[in-house]
């Protein structure tokens, strides 16, 4: 258990105590430790861009005002050196000398400044005798006094610290700054690609009176104003489909979903999701679109269709992607045929449980898993974990996909695909169920599963059924995790792709 530092001087870590004393001295002397603003004229990046090739010893005569966080500091005699860094990682040397700022200001620099402080430096742009682009100061001031020391630069922060203190991670690691910018570039490219395809972006409710659109446990809350229980949405699907009913034939949303489930290297309780719906399309059309979106994002946001993974290997996203069907691929892996429910010779629940026991797959006894869920669990165990290159897995059990249209020619399965990339599910797509009568029957079946103990089963949504009864055109829909797309493109775990993932607080007392 890690306790928060005490406010008592005798228990405060030495570095924090010294820095706080410096802050107090600055304020007592009538100077600012945290000024309201500073007269910065250029960013460090602008200075770098404006003076790319100065010869060693050059004095430009150009006066600038720059600011940055000190990440290197060397105070020596009458000449001090500091490396300043700004938000994008650009660095620039500042030189504070006796001749430039005077004896009193130089003494204040040595007394007040620590690694991690943000300082403002005004002076001439020069190239030092060693050829280092620099600002030779004629004045400086504190822009923000840091009361906590930065981590040791050569000692790598562990993952837990990086996640809990992402702000420090961003200061210290170029990789952290890069993934934050890559995430924004990926979302911008997705929006651009969908806009080019005439999709309209909308926003749908985060707080919902019923949880639906996916098989997951919700977070619940209560509205004092309306005196009703509400749920954080697990998916926007049922509202986006209302848009299609209303005539928005191509619609999408990029936003947060919330699922009250486990957290691991591929799952987060709060995550970003892209969902799209297109009238008059099938799951074949949406599979093509998702492949094109992923490839366009990889090419334009990452710069290649073969992104480099952390181990140095290349991951190939180019060309067409393989497809395989769930039941035939599972049958091949097991060495015996698995027949979908609804057929005369269907594989029974008892038979599936026996197979699971034989292959070492543990099935929760209190969940009431039916045929479809057992098939999916077996497929993931026998096939899904072994997939490496991009693969579309098609034609899922009816039971586990209550919002999906039944297959046109195969009994017992629905027109659904999941896209697996690097061994995990990246996206899913359907030919949507648009018959309100069958949809009601599917919801009733889900209610039975819930009664049997399935806490991820969907609830019957009368308002959604009412919307469907006005007539919903043939539609295809897709969902893709933004965090997982970043994982696919970078090889990182999900907590590294989310700027501030949920973590359990450290007890403080």
List the helices and strands and how they pair.
Blueprint: H1 14-28, H2 44-50, E1 59-76, E2 79-85, E3 91-97, H3 98-101, H4 103-112, E4 118-127, E5 133-144, H5 159-164, H6 166-172, H7 174-196, E6 200-201, E7 207-208, E8 220-223, E9 228-232, H8 237-245, E10 250-258, E11 270-279, H9 283-302, E12 322-325, H10 326-334, H11 349-358, H12 371-382, E13 391-397, E14 413-421, E15 424-431, H13 436-451, H14 462-468, E16 475-481, H15 482-490, H16 494-497
Parallel strand pairs: 3-5, 6-10, 12-13
Antiparallel strand pairs: 1-2, 1-4, 2-3, 4-5, 7-9, 8-9, 10-11, 11-16, 13-14, 14-15, 15-16
Helix pairs in contact: 6-7, 7-9, 7-15, 10-12, 11-12
Q: Any idea how many domains?
A: 2
Poorly predicted segments: 1-11
CA radius of gyration: 29 Å
Structure classification = alpha+beta
Please give the order of strands in the largest beta sheet: 6-10-11-16-15-14-13-12
Could you give the distance between the termini?
Answer: 10 Å
Tell me the CATH topology of the largest domain. BirA Bifunctional Protein, domain 2
Major sheet size, sense and barrel closure: 8 strands, mixed
The CATH architecture classification of the largest domain is 2-Layer Sandwich
Which bin fits the share of residues in helices?
25-40%
**Beta-strand percentage range:** 15-25%
The CATH homologous superfamily of the largest domain corresponds to: Bira Bifunctional Protein, Domain 2
Structure report:
This protein is an alpha+beta fold and 509 residues long. The protein folds into two domains: 14-144, Nucleic acid-binding proteins (OB fold (Dihydrolipoamide Acetyltransferase, E2P)), CATH 2.40.50.140; 172-321 and 389-497, Bira Bifunctional Protein, Domain 2 (BirA Bifunctional Protein, domain 2, 2-Layer Sandwich). It contains 16 helices and 16 strands. The protein has an eight-stranded mixed sheet with strand order 6-10-11-16-15-14-13-12, sandwiched between helices. The chain has a five-stranded mixed beta barrel with strand order 1-2-3-5-4. The longest helix has 23 residues, at 174-196. The relative contact order is 0.10. It is found in: Cytoplasm. Its cofactor is Mg(2+). Mg(2+) 2 binds at residue 425.
């Amino acid at each position: 258990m890690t306790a928060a530092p005490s406010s008592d001087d005798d228990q405060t870590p030495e570095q924090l105590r010294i820095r706080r004393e410096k802050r107090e001295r600055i304020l007592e002397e009538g100077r600012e430790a945290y000024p309201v603003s500073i007269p910065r004229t250029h960013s460090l990046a602008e200075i770098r861009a404006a003076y790319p090739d100065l010869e060693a010893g050059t004095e430009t005569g150009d006066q600038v005002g720059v600011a940055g966080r000190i990440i290197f500091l060397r105070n020596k005699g009458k000449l001090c050196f500091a490396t300043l860094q700004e938000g994008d990682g650009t660095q620039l040397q500042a030189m504070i000398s006796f001749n430039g700022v005077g004896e009193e200001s130089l003494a204040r620099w040595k007394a007040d400044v620590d690694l991690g402080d943000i300082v403002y430096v005004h002076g001439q742009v020069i190239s030092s005798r060693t050829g280092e682009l620099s600002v030779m100061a004629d004045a400086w001031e504190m822009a923000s006094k840091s009361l906590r020391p930065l981590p040791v630069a050569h000692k790598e922060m562990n993952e837990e610290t990086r996640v809990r203190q992402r702000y420090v991670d961003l200061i210290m690691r170029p990789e952290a700054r890069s993934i934050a910018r890559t995430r924004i570039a990926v979302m911008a490219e997705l929006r651009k690609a969908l806009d080019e395809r005439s999709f309209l972006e909308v926003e749908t409710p985060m707080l919902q009176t019923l949880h639906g659109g996916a098989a997951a446990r919700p977070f619940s809350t209560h509205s004092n104003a309306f005196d009703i229980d509400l749920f954080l949405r697990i998916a926007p699907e049922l509202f986006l489909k209302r848009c299609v009913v209303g005539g928005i034939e191509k619609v999408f949303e990029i936003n947060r979903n919330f699922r009250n489930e486990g957290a691991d290297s591929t799952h987060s309780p709060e995550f970003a999701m892209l969902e799209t719906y297109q009238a008059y399309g099938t799951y074949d059309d949406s599979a093509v679109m998702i492949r094109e979106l992923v490839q366009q994002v990889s090419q334009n946001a990452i710069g290649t269709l073969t992104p480099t993974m952390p181990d140095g290997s290349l991951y190939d996203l180019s060309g067409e992607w393989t497809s395989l069907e769930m039941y035939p691929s599972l049958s091949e892996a097991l060495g015996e045929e698995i027949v979908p429910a609804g057929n005369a010779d269907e594989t029974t629940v008892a038979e599936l449980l026996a197979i699971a026991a034989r292959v070492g797959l543990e099935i929760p006894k209190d969940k009431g898993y039916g045929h479809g869920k057992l098939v999916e669990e077996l497929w993931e165990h026998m096939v899904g974990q072994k997939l490496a290159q991009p693969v579309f897995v098609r034609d899922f059990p009816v039971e586990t996909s209550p919002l999906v249209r039944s297959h046109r020619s195969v009994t017992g399965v629905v027109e659904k695909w999941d896209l697996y990339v690097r061994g995990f599910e990246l996206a899913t797509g359907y030919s949507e169920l648009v018959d309100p009568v069958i949809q009601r029957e599917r919801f009733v079946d889900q209610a039975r599963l819930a009664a049997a103990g399935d806490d991820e089963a969907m609830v019957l949504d009368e308002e959604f059924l009412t919307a469907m009864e006005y007539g919903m055109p043939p539609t295809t829909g897709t969902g893709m995790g933004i965090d997982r797309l970043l994982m696919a493109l970078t090889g990182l775990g999900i907590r590294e792709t989310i700027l501030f993932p949920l973590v359990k607080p450290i007890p403080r007392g």
